Structure formats: structure tokens, C-alpha cells
Amino acid sequence: MGKLIPLLIALTGLAGGLGTGFFMQSGDKDVTHAEVTEGDVHEDGHAGESPVCPPTDSAGHALPPTPDAPADFVKLANQFVVPVVVENDVDAMVVVTLSLEVEQGAQQEIYNMEPKLRDAFLRVLFDHANMGGFKGNFLNHLGLETLRTALRETGKKTAGPILYDVLIVDMVKQAL
């Protein structure tokens, strides 16, 4: 009887694992696409760009944001410190270091508009934190891609065409 109990526990665990694996499989492998409504179509007849999805090629694969011309890199002087608030208390602090990929020779122009860029980037980071972007496994691909896209779009709106990309150089979360 003493040897039967561990065997039953092992068989129960094995059956539970197999059952969980079976039910957790994605049964539908097909991708569904959202319908484009009239409000999503611009005057030129093209649908608006998604803030989550990067631009794609003809095969539907994401394109890296690479400029045609040579680029310079500008490291922003200070790190960004973002509080993670849970139930009206600061639960953790996230420290982010950003660099900017800019048009060659545009470094001084970026340094001149750094306060405005920092303000815009902080707004994006605070919004990301308030939406729960820094909770749990905040380093997953989809969460980071959403943050990268939002930072890139905000940077391009603020700096204009001289800004090619915003690079997340370092990200650290410290629980309090």
C-alpha cells in the first residue's frame, strides 16, 4: 500500500499534464483579419496604420525600420524613470535608457529638442505603465514591440523626418 500511493500521485500528475496540454493547444490555426470601416480609411483611399503593427512587405512580414541614408546615433543624456503604480501605491520603478537613430549630421538638432522629446517619451512610458505594460513578464516580444512602435511614432511626430528610430538600450525594473 505504501508503494501504491506514490504511483497514483505520479499517474494523476501525468494525466493532468497531458489533459492540460491537450486543452491548451490552439485549435484554430487560421488568422482572422479585422474589417476596415469607413472611419479607418483616409482621403487617399488607404487604411490608417496600426499603432501596434509595424509596416509589412508584400508577404506580410514586418519590415525593420532602416533608413536609406547613413545614420547617426544619439544617446539621450539621462535615463527615464517610470513608476509602476498598483492600487494607488508605487509597486516598482522601471529605468529605461533610450538612443535615437537619426539622419546623419542631425545630432545637434536632436540635442536642441531633447527636452521636448523627453517629455513626449515620458508620456508614452507613463501610458505604457498605466496600461499594465510593465507588470508581469514585461519583456515579452509583443509588449516590447508595442512600446517600441509607440516611442518611434511619438519621436517621429516630435522630431520630424530626421528621426529614423528609437532604440531601447537598457531597461531595468526594481521592485520596491
From TrEMBL:
Principal subcellular localisation of the protein: membrane
Domain of life: Bacteria
GO cellular component: bacterial-type flagellum basal body; plasma membrane
Keywords tagged on the record: Cell inner membrane, Cell membrane, Cell projection, Chemotaxis, Cilium, Flagellar rotation, Flagellum, Membrane, Transmembrane, Transmembrane helix
GO BP term, example: chemotaxis
Location of the region described as Disordered in the Swiss-Prot/TrEMBL record: 40-65
Magnesium as UniProt keyword: no
One matching Pfam family: FliL
InterPro entries (UniProt xref): FliL (IPR005503)
Membrane topology: Single-pass membrane protein
Cell compartment(s), UniProt: Cell inner membrane; Cell membrane
Protein purpose: Controls the rotational direction of flagella during chemotaxis.
Recorded family membership: Belongs to the FliL family.
Designated name of the protein: Flagellar protein FliL
